[in-house]
């Protein structure tokens, strides 16, 4: 096990950073850094208005590329930091030993906790307000040519009433609309083209991949569950969705309208996915995200929990620091997630793990390799001098407008089904 930064760095509690931020207590520690609760001693206000979170990232033992990635992370974060639904970065600088990132202190915790506690279930108004604020944050990032690439509940903070969302952790963000960095992010939230198996590992669109991740989070918030472990042909739940586009509607208590939104987000062709403005409008227009009580009895296997389930997290300090989760009461409850009992192996090192009911058939696809069992990681350290700003490239990408939907590909022979799926993405060259 990799030692935490707290065990390798001095305890700076009681010290003052830059003559301004007095470090009050450690909130969490990860591999390369420690997050402190701090007080801005120069603030004319007191209490919460003077509270900050200071993330200290050690430089010792880091490669030049990792240090560069840290500077890029904070630079991109600062580009969108003024949006009300993005965690604000107040200061960022470095010395010979550390990077220092001064951010808002968010007392509501991250989105993972209310999802696990099913705070949004059967609460249309609360879910709508929260998810709309998340869409607004992502759309603002895209408008500034910042593409997050690791959207998941652990990287999203919430207000104390859980109605507002604040996007955080830009450790994997990029300003490139097309990339060829595969398996970047967290497996359950990766689009098929990000994983790369179905697309022939061709360059893909980062904004469209963010939309896919939003679809997964949408399922999380409505049901407290993941749709699948990963969007590959060796995942039984994803296969169920491919063969039956109403699979999630059949096993989860979601409304027809919510199911329609989910299907539009999970379109195999990235260019044909629902756009962020259309997603926002669809969420606003929908009367309810949930199945009515008298309709629940028709859900296939609902009481047996046939769809993937989210388990409550176990303590894991690395996840806390890596996602820059800044909680007023510490980070002991936030971290890695243990999947529910299942016949399907749980992928290691995922921050949110899915499992399928043992009775779900596991289809065989001769000729197709198994999916990767890990997710790529980036340096989670962040920090630049205030003057370091990455200017996004003014690159326009024109993608074909095809209409292939993963749930609309019909074929009796499973080998042919897989071949058609792979061909459709390969031909797109996105």
TrEMBL record:
Lineage of source species: Eukaryota, Fungi, Dikarya, Basidiomycota, Agaricomycotina
Family annotation (InterPro entries): Kinase-like_dom_sf, Prot_kinase_dom, Protein_kinase_ATP_BS, Ser/Thr_kinase_AS
Catalysed reactions listed for this entry: L-seryl-[protein] + ATP = O-phospho-L-seryl-[protein] + ADP + H(+); L-threonyl-[protein] + ATP = O-phospho-L-threonyl-[protein] + ADP + H(+)
Region (Disordered): 367-387
Annotated PANTHER family: CALCIUM/CALMODULIN-DEPENDENT PROTEIN KINASE KINASE-RELATED, SERINE_THREONINE-PROTEIN KINASE CHK1
Protein name, as recorded: non-specific serine/threonine protein kinase
Assigned protein family: Belongs to the protein kinase superfamily.
Residues in Protein kinase domain copies: 21-290
Pfam families noted in UniProt: Pkinase
Gene Ontology biological process terms, A to Z: signal transduction
């Amino acid at each position: 096990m990799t030692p935490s930064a707290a065990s390798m760095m001095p305890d700076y509690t009681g010290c003052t950073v830059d003559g301004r931020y007095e470090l009050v207590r450690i909130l969490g520690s990860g591999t390369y850094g420690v997050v402190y609760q701090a007080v801005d001693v120069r603030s004319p206000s007191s209490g919460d208005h003077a509270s900050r979170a200071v993330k200290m990232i050690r430089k010792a033992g880091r490669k030049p590329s990792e240090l560069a990635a840290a500077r890029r992370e904070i630079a991109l974060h600062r580009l969108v930091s003024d949006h009300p639904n993005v965690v604000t970065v107040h200061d960022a600088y470095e010395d010979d030993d550390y990077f220092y990132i001064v951010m808002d202190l968010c007392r509501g915790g991250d989105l993972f906790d209310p999802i696990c506690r099913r705070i949004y279930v059967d609460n249309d108004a609360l879910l709508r307000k929260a998810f709309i604020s998340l869409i607004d944050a992502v759309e603002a990032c895209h408008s500034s040519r910042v593409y997050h690439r690791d959207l998941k509940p652990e990287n999203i903070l919430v207000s104390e009433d859980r109605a507002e969302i604040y996007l955080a952790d830009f450790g994997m963000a990029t300003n490139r609309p097309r990339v060829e960095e595969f398996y970047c992010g967290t497996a359950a939230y990766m689009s098929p083209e990000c994983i790369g198996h179905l697309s022939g590992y061709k360059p893909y669109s980062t904004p469209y991949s963010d939309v896919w991740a939003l679809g997964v989070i949408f399922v999380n918030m409505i049901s407290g569950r993941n749709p699948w472990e990963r969007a590959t042909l060796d995942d039984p739940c994803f296969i169920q969705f491919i063969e039956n586009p109403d699979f999630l509607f059949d096993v989860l208590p979601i409304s027809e309208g919510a199911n329609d939104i989910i299907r539009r987000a999970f379109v195999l062709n990235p260019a044909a996915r629902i756009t962020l403005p259309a997603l926002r409008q669809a969420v606003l227009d929908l009367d309810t995200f949930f199945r009515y009580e008298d309709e629940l009895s028709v859900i296939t296997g609902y009481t047996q929990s046939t769809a993937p389930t989210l388990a409550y997290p176990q303590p894991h300090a690395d996840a806390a620091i890596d996602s820059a989760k800044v909680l007023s009461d510490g980070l002991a409850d936030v971290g890695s997630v243990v999947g529910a009992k299942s016949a399907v192996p749980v992928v290691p090192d995922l921050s949110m793990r899915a499992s399928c009911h043992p009775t779900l058939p596991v289809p065989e696809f001769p000729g197709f390799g198994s999916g990767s069992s890990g997710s790529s990681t980036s340096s989670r350290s962040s920090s630049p001098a205030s003057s370091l700003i990455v200017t996004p490239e003014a690159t326009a990408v024109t993608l074909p407008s095809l209409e292939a939907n993963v749930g609309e590909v019909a074929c009796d022979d499973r080998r042919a089904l897989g071949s058609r799926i792979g061909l459709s993405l390969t031909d797109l060259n996105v």
